[in-house]
Design goal:
single chain; alpha+beta; BirA Bifunctional Protein, domain 2; Rossmann fold; 5-stranded mixed beta sheet; elongated; binds adenosine monophosphate
Length: about 425
Amino acid sequence: MGTIPAIKGMNDLLPDQIHWWQKLESVARELLETFGYRELRTPLLEKTELFARSIGESTDIVEKEMYTFADLSGQLLTLRPEATASVVRAFIQHNLQADPLVRKFYTMGPMFRHERPQKGRYRQFHQIDAEVFGIDDPMLDAEIMYMLRLLLERIGLRGVVLHINSLGCPQCRAEYRVELKDFLAREALGFCPDCQRRRHTNALRVFDCKVERCRELLVEAPMLLDRICPGCAQHFAQVRQSLDQLHTSYHIDARMVRGLDYYTRTTFEVVTDQLGAQNAVGGGGRYDGLMKDLGGPDLPGIGFAMGMERLILLLQQQDVGSRRQPMLFVAALGDAARPRAFVLTQELRAEGLATEMDYGGASLKSQMRKADKLQVRFVAILGDEEMTRGALQLRDMVTKIQESVPFEQVPQVLMRKIREGA
Ligand code: AMP
């Protein structure tokens, strides 16, 4: 019988790469909490209508990318393709607005989209997602982008650029859409079939088209950013001003429309040129009408999602952050030394020192080889002679200096060496 592989586009995260994930998760968690965000976890499955209503019926996600199926009772369910809708639903359902002190939420975990898998694009992928409700102050928009900048800096990522735009409010966007549709109608024959269809379903999405001819034609198109109403323009100006005050550089990208219908006013993307076609590392924006559309209170919202696979691909490419190695390998030889080494290993672990040993009773040479492979900084050597003397040999694998350390002093000596930067 053949083996059963995982589903295409759904990846196992194996031990040799998991340290990247753990680092990213812990840096993000700490930073988000510092900025006042509280964690919330929602189910991976939701009723299909939640996503259809929030993301928009004529978006790529809802039209062709959702994992939707009927369960045994015939109810239509969908594996979440993004987190915002679920977080908004949970906020409404649990009346979280009753606590005026908690307005910022974050969640991390897998999302599911039936896209064509390629480097940086998977069918199960992970996002760090954050949402804020009830604040329409443009300072918050800038604060979020500043926080993203700090996140990228803290994980050590270089070469990513912040793109920002304003998509206006429903009123100014509706007026603009009429103008854009007129333009598209005049030039209709030049556009690809997809854009011709978008003209009727979701005209703004033509700006996402990758076809060269369509992009050329769109150079002449009216731009939403030039048409937003005075209120939206002022909001956007204040966002930019706050970003300047925080020394956070950005690029205004008037063609960035984002793939989800619910966005209003500020939208942003974190972009890289180092991942080929999948150039967005994360993105987000305001969605001031979504909460009300989903039957909740009329509260503004803003949020973002960072793609964890893409961040990690970049970290790997840039070779940032090395694997956490055990500090010490305990090599033991002989029937008396082995149980002592075993106990010592556990004691050191209990002190918080990453320690390894050999379980099979191999030769000293083979144990030293293993220590070398593990790239430990120190090896503790215990044989019959050391047992008689009550002191082991501690070898620094970098300086090659070896010293005798009494058993009971091993933890203190190691801790001191680590503190001193050994
Ligand atoms: P979106 O929710 O589409 O704005 O996506 C936010 C971020 O999630 C993107 O910038 C990507 O980094 C990541 N992302 C979206 N779709 C995928 C996918 N299929 N595979 C991997 N990462 C993705």
